């Protein structure tokens, strides 16, 4: 996961550079940032004729209606539980109203700008303009922000405004205030350990699982069945980004070594989004994700969803994949992603809110959307020595996804790297209010002022995220990170969905209301904490009940089946 976190990211440690930004007369400030990520330097005004490919995200016609519909079909006590929406039903909420499209179109036309309406729900407007025009159009001040480690320049503004009549029709404009590190596959993953594993076989017993985690360990630990799933309509999607490719040869070696009971030639399908491919180039992250889905969700059809570089969503394809899947007739019922952004603050409020709304669409379709919570403990996604404050990683802080934190050792304890905490952008959703309030009450004045008790708490659940054996480029090795936790948890959900489909029941869909209504279905993790490398701060302690290190806990398959009504 670190490749991704490094590649997308910003550091949690931010330098204060600016004060507030007053908008011009007739315009409303849409977003501003008061600091820039620590790895960036401001090199002054951008050249006026530099061209910018702009995107305007139009407001959904009925965003709140979509949220209500999502919760209505995802809350176990609701009479409509499991009645997931069709893509047409989602579109009726999500497509912008004609007034919105007209207002923004008329504004751009009056500014002499040629534009195109884009996106599955016709909710984006795209156009190219020079910096000089963008400064005028958005009351902005575009500057060159240089990412010091790579010298990559991002042309961004510390603030932007929209005409009063337009502001209410727009979610976000990109590129504006989000400053994120460039993708750089050469940075390479920084796994905690990648040493040759001891000789471990499929008949490893749990005693060895303190040193090396294999599928057999997880089956024993969580009660995950080894018997094959039976439903061909059940699908588990595994996303891949930043030129990370899953290797069939490595998967074959992995299955031969650690799942001797199944066909070593068990493969996976490939779906390409934004020109994504799957080259013969081993990637630790992609191999981990594929090996712990194909190798754990026995006989569940797995699709590797490769998201390529041809994305223009402003967020490395993170929005495109959600939008594409949400518009499909039969999207995968579970999607796991082990990539993310270190800090919701780096991404900014408007863009992360917009992205989160895209995941809401997927949930409404009945898709369980899982993300690794991040590997930087309370400091966000990235290791750092001296953290001035807690940071929430994204998309983990989005209330419409399920964030999976990490554990290690037997019996399990929170692993230090497991990102968790509270959002500053998203309020506490109703489904977790009791759980987060109980935790906040329990820790009393500890960390007061360093976290936002009224924010969305994450992660929601956890699974093993340390000393996980994989095969990569022909070698066995151990990896660490919530990158492992998310595919493991996703495999459990896919196996439960297999049984639900066989019983002609709806799949679990958006998981969180079900998770918080069924805390008894999880192994509550009550020790360990998640300082990450922010040792100057310390981390949130895992305790009885929900905690921002391990959420509600790790899977107990039979109890989860019972909670699913099976
Ligand atoms: C692992 O297995 C190989 C081949 O069977 C053997 O030569 C080697 O000594 C074993 N290593 C350990 C640490 O047991
Ligand atoms: C799951 O919970 C049941 C009921 O408490 C327990 O008997 C079982 O041992 C648990 N399974 C695992 C794998 O811990
Ligand atoms: C705390 O979270 C709430 C709810 O999301 C938000 O409105 C508020 O701005 C946050 N506070 C800070 C200091 O960021
Ligand atoms: C939260 O707690 C209150 C009071 O105990 C209870 O009435 C309510 O149902 C709980 N809500 C959830 C979502 O569990």
Biggest sheet overview = 8 strands, mixed
What is the CATH topology of the largest domain? Rossmann fold
DSSP strand (E) fraction? 15-25%
Number of H- or I-type helical stretches: 16
Task: Kindly report how far apart the N and C termini lie.
Answer: 34 Å
Q: Which residue ranges are poorly predicted, with pLDDT under 50 across at least 5 consecutive positions? A: 1-19, 184-205
User: What is the CA-atom radius of gyration, in angstroms?
Assistant: 23 Å
Q: In one word, what is the shape?
A: globular
How would you name the CATH homologous superfamily of the largest domain? Peptidase S8/S53 domain
- As an assembly, this protein is single chain
Active site: 285, 289, 483
GO molecular function: metal ion binding; serine-type endopeptidase activity; tripeptidyl-peptidase activity
Keywords: Calcium, Hydrolase, Metal-binding, Protease, Serine protease, Signal, Zymogen
Protein name: tripeptidyl-peptidase II
């Amino acid at each position: 996961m670190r490749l991704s976190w490094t590649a997308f990211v910003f550091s949690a440690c931010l330098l204060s550079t600016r004060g507030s930004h007053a908008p011009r007369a007739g315009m409303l400030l849409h977003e501003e940032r008061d600091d820039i990520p620590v790895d960036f330097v401001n090199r002054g005004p951008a050249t006026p004729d530099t061209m910018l490919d702009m995107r305007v995200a139009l407001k959904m016609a009925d965003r709140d209606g979509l949220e209500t519909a999502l919760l209505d079909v995802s809350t176990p006590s609701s009479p409509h539980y499991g009645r997931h929406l069709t893509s047409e039903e989602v579109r009726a909420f999500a497509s912008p109203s004609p007034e919105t499209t007209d207002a923004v179109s008329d504004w751009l036309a009056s500014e002499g700008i040629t534009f195109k309406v884009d996106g599955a729900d016709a909710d984006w407007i795209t156009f190219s303009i020079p910096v000089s025009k963008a400064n005028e159009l958005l009351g902005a001040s575009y500057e060159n922000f240089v990412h010091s480690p790579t010298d990559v320049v991002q042309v961004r503004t510390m603030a932007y405004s929209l005409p009063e009549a337009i502001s209410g029709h727009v979610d976000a404009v990109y590129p504006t205030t989000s400053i994120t590190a460039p993708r750089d596959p050469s940075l390479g993953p920084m796994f905690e350990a990648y040493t040759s594993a001891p000789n471990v076989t499929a008949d490893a017993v749990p005693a060895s699982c303190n040193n090396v985690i294999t599928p057999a360990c997880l089956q024993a630990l969580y009660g995950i069945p080894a018997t094959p799933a039976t439903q061909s309509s059940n699908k588990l999607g595994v996303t891949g980004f930043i030129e990370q490719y899953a290797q069939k040869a490595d998967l074959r070696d992995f299955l031969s070594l650690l799942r001797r009971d199944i066909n070593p030639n068990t493969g996976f399908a490939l779906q390409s989004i934004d020109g994504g491919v799957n080259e013969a180039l081993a990637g630790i992250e992609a191999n981990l994700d594929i090996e712990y889905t194909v190798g754990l969700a026995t006989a569940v059809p797995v699709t590797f969803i490769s998201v390529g570089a041809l994305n223009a969503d402003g967020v490395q394809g993170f929005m495109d994949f959600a939008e594409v899947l949400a518009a499909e007739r039969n999207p995968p019922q579970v999607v796991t992603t082990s990539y993310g952004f270190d800090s919701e603050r780096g991404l900014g409020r408007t863009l992360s809110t917009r992205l989160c709304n895209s995941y809401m669409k997927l949930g409404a379709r009945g898709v369980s959307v899982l993300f690794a919570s991040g590997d930087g403990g309370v400091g966000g996604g990235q290791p750092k020595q001296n953290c001035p404050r807690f940071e929430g990683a994204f998309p983990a802080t989005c209330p419409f996804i399920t964030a999976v934190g990490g554990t290690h050792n037997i019996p399990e304890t929170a692993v230090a790297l497991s990102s968790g905490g509270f959002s500053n952008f998203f309020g506490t959703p109703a489904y977790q209010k009791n759980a987060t309030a109980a935790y906040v009450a329990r820790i009393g004045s500890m960390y007061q002022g360093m976290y936002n008790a009224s924010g969305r708490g994450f992660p929601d659940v956890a699974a093993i995220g340390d000393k996980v054996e994989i095969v990569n480029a022909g070698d066995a090795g151990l990896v660490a990170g919530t990158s492992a936790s998310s595919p493991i948890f996703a495999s459990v959900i896919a196996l439960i969905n297999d049984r639900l489909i066989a019983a002609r029941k709806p799949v679990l869909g958006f998981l969180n209301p079900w998770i918080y209504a069924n805390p008894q279905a999880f192994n509550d993790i009550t020790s360990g904490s998640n300082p990450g490398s922010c040792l100057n701060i310390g981390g949130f302690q895992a305790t009885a009940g929900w905690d921002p290190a391990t959420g509600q806990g790790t899977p107990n398959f039979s109890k989860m089946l019972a909670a699913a009504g099976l």
